[in-house]
Amino acid sequence: MMNPDDILLQTQDLMKVYGGSQPVYAINQVNLTIRHQEFISIIGPSGSGKSTLMNLLGLLDTPSSGAVTYLGDNTAKWSERQRSFFRNRKIGFIFQAHLLLPEFTALENVVMPCRILGESSADRIDKAKELLNRIGLGDRMHHLPRELSGGQNQRVAIARALVNSPEIVFADEPTGALDHKTGLAVYDLMREIHQHEGVTFVIVTHERLLADRSDRIISILDGQVQSDELKS
Amino acid sequence: MALPLELYIAARYIKANIKQSFIVMFAVGIGVSLIVFIPSANMSFYGRMLERAVEKAPSITISREMKTKERNRQLLQPWFPGPEEVRISDKTLSRKRNILGYRTLMQRLAEEPDVVTVAPYVSEHIIVVRGSKVMGADLQGIVPNLEEKMTHISGDVEKGDLSDLHSNEVFLGRKLAEELGVDLGSRVQLVTSQGTRSFKVVGTLSTGLYAKDYSTVITSLTAAQKLLDMSSTVTSIGLRVTDPYQADAIAQDIRLRYGLKAESWMEQNKLLLDELKSFRVIISFISFLIVFAAASSITSILIMVVSSKSKEIGILKAMGAQPGQIMRLFMIQAMVLSLIGAVLGVFGGQGIIELYNASPIAKMESSLGFERKPIVMNIPFTMLAVMYAMISSFLASLLPAWQASRLNPVDAINK
Hints:
Chain A is of the alpha/beta class. Helix content of chain A is 34%, strand content 27%. In chain A, helix 3 (106-116) packs across helix 4 (122-134), helix 3 runs parallel beside helix 5 and helix 5 runs parallel beside helix 6 (180-197). Chain B has 16 helices and ten strands. The longest helix of chain B has 39 residues, at 270-308. The chains are: A alpha/beta, B alpha+beta.
């Protein structure tokens, strides 16, 4: 029996349907439970619905029906403002293309989630610097994204996702735009952060080799969970 | 203290997209420059005309005694204001054109509470002859010291001393003297229907009004009376009142109480005032169109910016930025750009004014009969232009800013 306090996130009959007369079920009746400090990979072929599922779980999108519950609270009742606030405080995102703000330096990008909340104190900046040092970019923190390599930018995106000490980080194909070696390094970095910080990671990937290095693999096909494998 | 998020990002966007920012600032700047220059140029022109109409002429001119029938009709009007026909029988339909007993009348008018100065005039169209040259002109007989109080005429004197004007001496308009080829000490013949007399030119006047400088002949009141065989009558009496903008009401009062024809400067310059009013409407409309065009550039450029920044907007929203923050970000961007543009526009407008003033065009005489003087920046219009530019930019930024704030983060990131 699972201790309710261990549960971070749950979905109940989650559905995302597009179109009218001929509906497309992007996510179909998905029921998942994600516990604190898990390191999960969601795998599936292109178009299987894994990114849509991540967007629903990360409150970037709203389901057609069903519910996403965080820490026992049904998010369907939340206003846009509450969802934005929750994303800022509790969720970190890493995207395939790093999606850094090109006009801002690495350090400014990392501090941005704090600024959104009106917090840009010296403590926050120190934390951002510490994160950048930890991921090996201490000497590049004042560089613009265009002055950094793809792997370095993705590491900046990881630091940005972590700056507000989130409960959970969603990463959508975080190594997709990187070569294999750099991709592995980025994956290892996320793994290391997970182990040290205890942050829950949900990584969407189509690379089985990377998924195999996580603790739990959820396989998605045609919007449905095909398998949910907990590795020992 | 750290900048608010919206200003922080907007400032960076402006700096990073300097070309687009420059286009917006340039468009707003041009609009504001034109709004500063065009009204300043025209208001300076009309302003001078109005100033002259108020200061260089009597506030009220009593030109002749009113027809008694007309006076009776006006007196009866309070009792018969409706459409009823009131038959007024008056055997004396009009009195003599010239004002008889003008000294007594002047004394009475001078005692009126709103009247500051009273001066008599004898006016007539005459012909001025000098050798083979013959010119039409407007003779005005004045009392120099009273005229000084009335219109500060000494300010218009180019040569000579008007306070020392004797019988058989005249002042001519500068252009008229040039046309006749006369200078101080020359003699001219003044021809009227009552006869011809010779006068010595003792001065010239330069009023700035081309037509006036081309036609004015000034003599003393008594010389004009003698020339026109008017004995001790005058053709008009001028009044200067304490508040020139009350001249209409005071003139109406004088018409009723004295039975005299009294015209205010507003009635005499009705065309000018109407022109001024319609001019203001036209200028406001043109200004609206100019800034509207500038504001349109803000809308289109911001729409482009929002489109090109959709991924960044998406990521900001994913990181928890509120729709209001996104909206304010783009509105602040538009407002900052238009404020800089408007300030540059004010300097640009001042620059155009100074260029114009320094150009040969500004020194040419206007064909409208008015000497051009340096254009002065119209401060109220300038302030209005800046305010209008800001309001227009604010409105122009609403749609793209709103679109940005409504972007779905998933759609924006995947664009």
